[in-house]
Amino acid sequence: MTASPPPAFTPPDPAFETKVRESFARQPFMATLGAALGAVVPGRVEVVLPFDEGVTQQHGFFHGGAIGAIADTAGGYAAFTLFPPNSTVLTVEYKINIMAPGKGERLIAVGEVTRSGRTLTIVRVDVYVQAGEARTHCATATQTLICLHGKSDARSEG
Q1: Would you put residue 60 in left (φ > 0), alpha (ψ -120 to 50) or beta?
Q2: Fold of 16-149
Q3: pLDDT single digits (tens) 41-63
Q4: In the chain, how long is the greatest CA-to-CA distance?
Q5: Nearest 10 degrees: CA dihedral of 82, 88, 93, 96?
Q6: Would you tell me the crossing angle of helices 16-25 and 64-80 to the nearest 10 degrees?
Q7: Phi and psi of 82, rounded to 5°?
Q8: 135 pairs with which residues across the strands?
Q9: Contact 152, 125 (CB under 8 A)
Q10: What are the residues whose beta carbons fall under 8 Å from the beta carbon of 157, sequence distance 6 or more?
Q11: Residues facing 146 on adjacent strands
């Protein structure tokens, strides 16, 4: 049995890519980790985390918290690509299964929307570790996100 291709989505905000990239740039935690955005297309976003000792655990593998953080971010922004202007995104819940050690030069988290609703969006995130030319599927997450209509995505004061 082969997996069906991801659904095609038409974003309600023609400036979705700019909106996502600007929002990501305002995240100090992603900057602290050293993560960067890769591809941003309707319903699909990649987040890349290069290897650094600061994001490892005691065995030298990428820390599970770093894997979870980029999975959460890739999924959140995949959902955000399909949100209308003048809205923002927040994670409601996610569950992650780490299936293989994160040992390599970088992690790549790929978030893909499964269902985009008016309020709640469901996303699947696959995380890969790349070592040389080899990519290993090291984690899968499922995530629920909420669209907050009429709320700015900019940092609120106070």
Answers
A1: left
A2: Thiol Ester Dehydrase; Chain A (3.10.129)
A3: 999 999 999 999 999 999 999 99
A4: 52
A5: 60
A6: 150
A7: -105, 5
A8: 130
A9: no
A10: none
A11: 90, 120
* Predicted TM-score (pTM) of this structure: 0.93
Share above pLDDT 90 across residues of the chain, in percent, rounded to a whole number: 91
| Surface-to-core class of residue 1, CB atoms within 10 Å of its CB (0-12 exposed, 13-18 middle, 19+ buried) | exposed
CA distance 140 to 128: 9
List the chain domain ranges: 16-149
- As a three-state string, the secondary structure of the chain is CCCCCCCCCCCCCCCHHHHHHHHHHCCHHHHHHCCEEEEEECCEEEEEEECCHHHECCCCCECHHHHHHHHHHHHHHHHHCCCCCCEEEEEEEEEEEECCCCCCCEEEEEEEEEEECCCEEEEEEEEEEEECCEEEEEEEEEEEEEEEECCCCCCCCC
Rg (CA), the chain: 15
With CA atoms as reference, report the closest residue to 138 among 119, 110, 157: 110
pLDDT tens figures, 2-48: 555 556 899 999 999 999 999 999 999 999 999 999 999 999 999 99
